[in-house]
Specification:
single chain; 177 residues; alpha+beta; 5 helices
Length: 177
């Protein structure tokens, strides 16, 4: 008796899809963080207009988005600027659900490249240095396309914030206006 099976196709990295996802994530981040857009415009100015004072202002920036949770409560997603250089900015994105005993809080580090209008995940749940493709089986249990999946997850997270997130206003931010 012959066994019927379907041969698996080898995963091929799609550079076009990966770049498109990173570019879309950059646009999503600019929409969510208007200060990041101003920083991009400022950093593209020539020469001495770039200074440490502007960088320090961006470093203090944090935005929290409230998303509807499964039990009717809110889940918060905090985006915090951790580094600000002329052409790159690093962000920390952390979800804080109401019941941390039932779900792990996703956390990632994202690098934003203003010179090429792109953003990619550089760390997820403490794991760094993702390859574009992994051989299977992988000893760390990564998927064959782990890096692409993580960047796609970032895109879905940011899209959710854009579609149904509410900005949490902090007292300090309300006093500034």
């Amino acid at each position: 008796m012959r066994a019927n099976f379907v041969a698996k196709r080898k995963y091929k990295v799609s550079l076009i899809e990966d770049i498109a996802e990173r570019d879309a994530n950059y646009i999503r981040l600019l929409r969510l963080l208007p200060r990041l857009r101003r920083w991009r415009d400022f950093s593209r100015r020539p020469g001495p207009e770039f200074d440490a004072a502007a960088s320090a202002e961006l470093l203090a920036h944090t935005a929290t988005f409230l998303l509807p949770g499964p039990d009717g409560g809110d889940i918060s997603l905090r985006i915090r600027v951790t580094e600000a250089f002329r052409y790159t900015t690093s962000l920390e994105i952390v979800q804080q659900p109401g019941d941390p005993d039932r779900i792990a809080n996703p956390a990632m580090q994202v690098r934003v490249y203003h010179d090429v209008n792109s953003a990619e995940v550089i760390s997820y749940q403490g794991h760094r240095g993702f390859k574009a493709r992994y051989k299977q089986p992988d000893r760390r249990m990564y998927q064959v396309n782990e890096k692409a999946l993580i960047n796609r997850f970032l895109g879905e997270w940011l899209t959710l914030c854009l579609q149904c997130g509410r900005v949490e206003h902090h007292l300090e931010a309300m006093l500034e206006t």
